[in-house]
Amino acid sequence: MRLLFVCKRHPQQRDLIERPYGRFHHLPVAFAELGHEVQVLLCSHRNLPSTQIRMTGVDWLCEDVRNLSSGTLYRRLIQHAHAFRPDWVIGMSDTYYGWLAQRIAYSTDALSAVDAYDNYEAYMPWNLPLHALWRRSIRKADLVTAAGPQLAQRLQSHRRGGRPVEVIPMAADPEFRPLDRRACRLALGLPADIRFIGYVGSWARNRGTTMLIDAFRRARAAQPDIHLLLSGRPPQEVLSEPGVMGTGYVADTQLPALINALDIACVITADTSFGRYSHPAKLCEAMACGVPVVATATEPVRWMLGERSEHLAPPGDAASFAERMLDLLAAPRAEYGPRPTWSDHARRFDYLLSDIGREKR
Fold first, then answer.
1. Domain with residues 2-171+341-360, CATH architecture
2. DSSP secondary structure letters along 179-246
3. Which among 165, 166, 249, 336 is least buried, having the fewest CB atoms inside 10 angstroms?
4. Arithmetic mean of pLDDT, 122-129
5. What pLDDT does 141 receive?
6. Which phi and psi (to 5°) does residue 288 adopt?
7. CATH topology for 181-328?
C-alpha cells in the first residue's frame, strides 16, 4: 500500500526531523519496514524552509505556513498528495490534521484514517468551529484509531454508529530499556548513594503536580534520606524545597539514562477533560525501563498499568501517593510483563488498513 501521513512537525515540542519521537515517527517507519511505500507531510509554523528528505525508509516532506500562507500551504499539500497517489491518508498529532487528512483523501480518491493520542478538544475548548471540523473528520473517516479504550469511547460518540474506533496504544521508543542504575547516575553526574524519586515532565498546576510536592513532603517525613529529582524547569519555590534537586534541561538522548537512574518514577495526571483521556508516554517509558512507578489512578493510567494497585493512587490524594512511594522504595525493579513495541502496534494497524481496504475497494 501507499500510505500518506499528515502531521505537525513539532508534536509535543519535538522536531520530527531533528528529534524523531513517538507514534508520529515510529509508526510510519514501522509501516515502511513492513514493505509499504510511506510518505509523511509535516506542517510547521516556525519560518522553516520547505524541505524533502528520505530518512529511515520514509520520505518526509516539510512545509511551513508562515512562509507560504495557509492557502498556499494547503495547495502544496494537495500537490504532494497527488504526486504520491496514496491508498490511505492518515491524519495524526492534533485536531487540524484529522480535517486535513479527510480533505486530502477526498481530493486523491484515497481512504482516510485518523489516529488520536489525546482528547484534542481539551486543548482549546473555546474553538467550537475547529471542534466541529474535528468531529466531522472522525465521522467521515474510514478508520479511526485511539491510544486507549477511554479515548476510543469518546471518539466513538462522534461516529454515530459505523465501524468501531480501534485502539492502537502508546509504546516506548526503542531506546527506553533497562540500564544499570549506577552507570546512569555516573553518566548524568548524580550521586550514586541517594534514593531518588523522580518526575520527568512538564510542571502544570492543572495536571496535579503541586500534589506531588505535598506527597514528597509526607514521604520524606517518614524517610528523611530520600530526594525528589525534577527535570526541566519547575518553579523556583519547588526547587527550594528541602530534598528537591533539579537536573535542568536533559537532552533527548539522556532521557533513558535519567529514568533508569530513578528508584521510583512518578506519573501525574488529573481528573480533567484532558487527563481522563491521557495515556502518558512517560508511563510507557518508565515501564519499558522496569522502573517502579507511582501514578495517579485515572482510568487510562489504570488501564495502562493493568489495574496494579501497588502503583496507583487516587488523583489529588497526596497521602496515598506518599504511601505508594514508601512501599515501592524497597523494590529494585518492577515487572510489568511483555511490553508491546511500535512495530507490534504497526502490524495491528496494518491489518486494519488492509482489511478495510479490501472491503472498500
1. 3-Layer(aba) Sandwich (3.40)
2. --HHHHHHHHT--SSSEEEEE-S---GGGTHHHHHHHHHHHHHH-TTEEEEEES---HHHHTSTTEEE
3. 249
4. 83
5. 96
6. -65, -30
7. Rossmann fold (3.40.50)
